[in-house]
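>> Question from a student workshop board

For tomorrow's exercise we were told to take the sequence and the ligand below, predict the bound structure, and bring the output to class. My setup keeps failing. Could a helper post the expected result so I can at least see what it should look like? The ligand is alpha-D-glucopyranose.
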Amino acid sequence: MNGNWWKEAVVYQIYPRSFNDTTGSGTGDLNGVTKRLDYLKDLGVDVVWLTPVYKSPQHDNGYDIANYYEIDPLYGTMKDFDELLNETHARGMKLIMDLVVNHTSTEHDWFQEAKKSKDNPYRDYYIWRDEPNNWESKFGGSAWEWHEATGQYYLHLFDKTQADLNWENPKLREEIYRMVEFWGKKGINGFRLDVVNLLSKGETFEDDHVGDGRRFYTDGPRIHEYIHEMSTRAFLPYGMMTVGEMSSTTLEQGVLYTRPDRQELDMIFHFHHLKVDYPDGEKWTKAPINFEQLKEIFTKWQEGMDSGGGWNAVFWSNHDQPRAGSRFGDGSPEAAKMLATTIHLLNGTPYIYQGEELGMTSPAFKTIEEYRDVETLNAYDLLREQGVPEKEVLSILASKSRDNGRTPMQWSGEKPHAGFTNGTPWIGLADNWETINAENAINDSSSVYYHFKQLIQLRKKHPIIQSGSVQFLDHLHHALFAYERVLDDKRLVVVSNFSSEAVEVPLQIHEVLISHLPIQSVDDQKFVLPGYGAIAFFA
Ligand code: GLC
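>> Workshop helper replied:
Here is what the output should look like for this input. Compare the format with yours to find the bug.
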């Protein structure tokens, strides 16, 4: 097998909770995923990424793991998992899982032991201090929780039920590698590594006088050592593909994490392009997309990873983000197709988040009761405490909450829950499911679904999409996102219109590869790209 098979792959992310429920519990399950494998095979994806299905109290929907070796009964059994894995492989696809090793649930046995006493052998698996510093949790409030019985604070960069692990402790690291091997022996094909650039916290735990503490633990002092060790000990022996989630890492670090000779990770997700509507870094406010910034970020990362020898994971959507079509476009199928063309022809491995291939939209929830996410509920409380009026808070949540991306997969027009469940769904659906659903999409050759399918096929057919160099074209109209890919004597140009107005493009089309709206040529030196149009052509 080609050692770099993941460079040619397209990955599909499944958030099992919202994918397909076969028991009527209202929550999706593993058998539900197995039942839909043919759907994924038909779409043409190569790799399925399953977000956490391990045993968990589900305070953060499974990112709070209580046992790394067990499947949460909510999702089924280990037998169901084995069947899913076999059936995925039987269809020639691969399966990767989520590796959450920055923290465990406080219900994990290690933490249960650790909190018994200061000299418990597991105490040092976590991070304890007599005094807290001023670091803040990413879910709001202090990052330290007081533990009365032993008189110390423990660190939690996320929810207080997610205690940060102490990677300085070699015993802890050994436990993690053993666990990775357990899954490797089962035959899974890799991992997406949750918030993995936060593992190394340093030893000083100073107060942060200019920020919330992140500069001390993001890409921290021993991070490359830890990742290299984990890779050589646990990933490489099993030929695993690895993708690190690194929200705010830098380009320089990104190259270091992914340059093959360093044996760390195959690729990373950074989130800089998903913060262009966070003015001054503030997520919980309503703001338009800063499109110039969006282009600058892509230019920097695409050109920089390419020339530095690193590798990008490219994506618009995941379970932590509002639906891309609603955020970067107007929620229309045209905008969904435009965004797909833009991302799939870039340099890197593309990721599709469930429902993106249908053009699913954010649900526009109107009451706080409709939300489930711990981060969202915390933000609601904080904003209300600050005196922000209820109506405004709800409008912010409708544009920023992670639940916007977590509503159930819209399979069909079947009443009352779009074929997702026969029970009561754990979270409500977007109310456009009667029109936007997989069944309709498959019956309509002009649907968003077929556009994705075509993009996946093009990637397999044209080596320039997998391995051409990339350069941005920044001299065109300001509403355009444009780049070219070059391989040998071939030049593939991609132009996307992020506005609703038609725009004239002064470029010459030689041979069209893909386009979803009628292109009008003005003369042989110019053409008009309709609002939310995108075109890829050989020049
Ligand atoms: C990642 C996950 C997110 C989770 C957090 C803490 O960002 O994608 O869903 O809440 O890590 O594990």
